[in-house]
Amino acid sequence: MDNIITSKENPVIKLYQKLSASKKERLQYGLFVLEGLRIVSDALQENAEVTHLILTKQAMEHWGEELLQADLRDTKTLVISNELGNRIASTSTTQGVFAICRVPAAKAPVFTDNGRYIVLYGLQDPGNVGMIIRTADALGIDGIFMCGSCDLYSPKAIRSTMGSVFRESIFVVGSEDELFDVLKCGGVETSAAVIDTDAEKITTCGFNGRQAVFIGNEGNGLPAETALRCDRRVTIPMNGTINSLNAAMAAGILMWELKK
């Protein structure tokens, strides 16, 4: 196998490491990174704009034939040494499969009849964000809005989506005012998920027409003023003295009820 890259000074390798480490660099270049056989395969299958496919020598021997079946006309493929793969990996036991992918161009949301949406407002844990996106994909949620939350394109968030980031419609909104304007113009009724026994129980309140549920920060929930801007307040009834759930777990319950 010829032309195996071994130097950390290779321009593509340097770019990969910058993108992996820095949100600023991801924003500047409009690119993000992928690591792992499954998520790189999903990106290729879903026609994501993969600019570079990077495989270690070992990965090329194991999965090269499978990965190279994709349409790679606009993708540069590099083979690197196993040692260099370990150096750029963000996981402890890397599969040696990496990619650089272009951030999709922003699109205006298209609201469907009886559409079901969730709003991630102020979530800061990329693992939670990724898990919620994955659950939304599994349950058939029509779109996800993110406002004031962590970077969708951080390696941990992307990895946690398990490929669902390429299948779900995700809209990153810059401000609360813009968020409410977009939902109002789309004829979407908004519900704030809160911890309050006076709020409507999610299990009995019912959802008609276009609906969006707001899910707040892991530690503090939704700001009171944001909850008040929503059309109604809903809560997950809980047993005993428990008064909170992990954000991703709560989101899963809320989305399940939305889709019933």
Can you walk through the features of this model?
With 260 residues, the chain is α/β, with parallel strands linked by helices. It has 10 helices and 11 strands. The strands form 2 sheets. It has a 7-stranded parallel beta sheet, sandwiched between helices. A 4-stranded mixed beta sheet has the order 1-4-2-3, sandwiched between helices. Helix 6 links the parallel strand 5 and strand 6. The radius of gyration is 20 Å and the shape is elongated. The mean pLDDT is 93.
Helix and strand layout, with pairings?
Blueprint: H1 11-21, H2 23-29, E1 31-35, H3 37-45, E2 50-56, H4 57-67, E3 76-80, H5 82-88, E4 97-102, E5 116-121, H6 126-139, E6 143-147, H7 155-160, E7 170-173, H8 176-185, E8 189-193, E9 200-201, E10 211-215, H9 224-229, E11 232-235, H10 247-259
Parallel strand pairs: 2-3, 5-6, 5-10, 6-7, 8-10, 8-11, 9-11
Antiparallel strand pairs: 1-4, 2-4
Helix pairs in contact: 1-2, 6-10
In short:
With 260 residues, the protein is an alpha/beta fold.
